[in-house]
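Obj.: predict assembly geometry.
Materials: sequence records (below).
Method: joint structure prediction, all chains together.
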Amino acid sequence: MEDRKPLRVGIAGLGVVGAGVVGLLQRNAAQIAARAGRPIEVVAVAARDRARDRGVDLTKVTWAETAQDLTQRNDVDVFVELIGGSEGPAREAVEAALARGLPVVTANKALLAHHGADLARMAEARGVTLAFEAAVAGGIPVIKVLREGLAANRFSRVYGILNGTCNYILTKMRQEGRDFADVLADAQKLGYAEADPTFDVDGIDAAHKLSILAAVAFGTDVAFDKVHVEGIRHVSAVDIAFAEELGYRIKLLGIAALTEAGLEQRVHPCMVPVDSAIASVEDVYNAVVAEGDAVGTSMMVGRGAGAGPTASAVVADLIDLARGFSVPTFSVPVAAKVALPSVAIDKHRGAYYVRLMVLDQPGVIADIAGALRDEKVSMEAMIQRGRNPGEIVPVVLTTHETDEAAMRRALTRIDGVPAITEPPRVIRIMEQL
Ligand SMILES: NC(=O)C1=CN([C@@H]2O[C@H](COP(=O)(O)OP(=O)(O)OC[C@H]3O[C@@H](n4cnc5c(N)ncnc54)[C@H](O)[C@@H]3O)[C@@H](O)[C@H]2O)C=CC1
Ligand SMILES: N[C@@H](CC=O)C(=O)O
Ligand code: NA
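Observations (raw structure tokens):
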């Protein structure tokens, strides 16, 4: 093995993940070389700050001026992009690498969600690998599992907890009664959050990942613009407490389902039964559930963010490259992709949790019930806290399965009732897990 040529790596971006990758390659060098069949060595890097102590040994690497420069070096066999962002230097460098026939490993879900189809075409045209295990569900080898381990299956649904920051926030709010902003700051310190954390809390990061997951599972193009996206900003301590009372836990889920009408892709907070397996996936952990016709239901759980788990996935891709292993980018060659119509969210059917803040006065409940009845939305339960005439109190209701479009019409009417003092808060209930 000693005389095998090393795989020479150039890394752009030495932040949380970049430094994690350098550290992991150094720490487990002997074992990685044994498994890869040859050593994997970082020979060159590009980063904005050369002086910063990243806790890893960079004395033997060459510093390139820019990420682009890194892609043009003859001593680099694979370009690793860990800068982030769907445009700018990350996109330009990845495109330059692929155009030159250099394999690419990236953790950049934003880039793949926006430009995955084009980048896959470029990679295929040049016959090079574009690998991205770290981009979806961090350390869980979910791309490998869907693309290889479960390759014999037709999938009906793939869903899961795809954002570690949001799961961490929801967990700490529920377990410790802490504030949203306070827990988000913690997630940032721990290296879980995106450079712009609104991508996490507004569901965009989970939607990036879902669109990639759907492309891999269903052999279709990445269609991020077709994902319905809602984040967790409006999930309050009150909703978390009501969820507990009703036997649910709130999770931000990404769901891609193949229906007769086409592909439904949505990211939003969900109430899941407290005794379901996914309800127990807490903190920074992610989970991905795949429903295949042959295998049935498979669930994978692991850390979805942070230096270690993400580096684990990046290095696994490097080991595959060192071994000479290669598969089509999104599981099928570009020409074999299937076009699937996308199903809009108003065609969704499901059950709903609705929380209203209501000025307690006679007739309000009748108005709410009337709006639901007129739209043929059938109520499952109602909780009214306290009877304090003249005060604002929460009223919570849950529905039986109904059409999203009908639910929206009913909510518009309910919102117009003068005694409803703030917009209804709605969380979809997911029973079929
Ligand atoms: N942090 C995490 O848990 C995970 C992150 N990712 C993805 O990994 C990528 C990197 O994320 P982090 O390491 O967390 O971000 P980070 O912000 O810690 O690191 C990015 C680094 O890139 C550097 N950079 C910016 N522009 C550059 C340029 N033009 N040339 C070279 N370096 C440049 C920045 O100075 C920074 O140090 C992103 O695409 C992110 O979405 C994926 C999975 C998990
Ligand atoms: N910000 C992301 C990082 C991993 O993809 C998350 O919190 O999941
Ligand atoms: Na992964």
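Conclusions so far: The domain at 142-303+339-345 is CATH 3.30.360.10 (Dihydrodipicolinate Reductase; domain 2).
To do: check interface contacts against the pulldown list.
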